[in-house]
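Forgive a beginner's question, but might I ask you for the amino acids of a protein and the tokens describing how it folds?
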Amino acid sequence: MKLNVYLAGEIHSDWRDAIISACDGLPIDWFGPVTEHAASDDCGAEIFGEEDDKFWHDRKGALLNAVRIRTGIARCDVLVVCFGEKYKQWNAAFDAGYAAALGKPVIVLHPPEHDHALKEVDAAANAVARTPQQVARALRYITTATLT
């Protein structure tokens, strides 16, 4: 089974690379948000003009990034969303909720200390993983129907 997998969530660690590497050879097409922090933050003002007010600067970027994110989530077969340890990822929670509302399967990745804060997100997910390797094993199982 070939899958389109959208990797949503935090951009401050290498979890995406770990999953993609562990899934080498599987029939999976990967995509996700812009992960270069400066480009993601500044794209709207850079393309459409600077803003004096930080609110409008951020809004321009968020609206432009939403085109990529919403299109990617709508086209994916599975959403993997990672909540990291360092920052509150409100955008990741939004992405998980958007995918769930579209009826997309969701795999959540986060450390145990986030269990309580993410209990509603976890309850809406199809699976909750603790490590990128668990996500990779789940995707291997989904695509090959084997546990090897």
About this structure: The chain has a mean pLDDT of 96. The first helix runs from residue 15 to 22. Residues 3-32+76-144 form a domain with the Rossmann fold fold (CATH 3.40.50.450). Strands lie at 3-9, 28-31, 78-82, 106-109, 127-129.
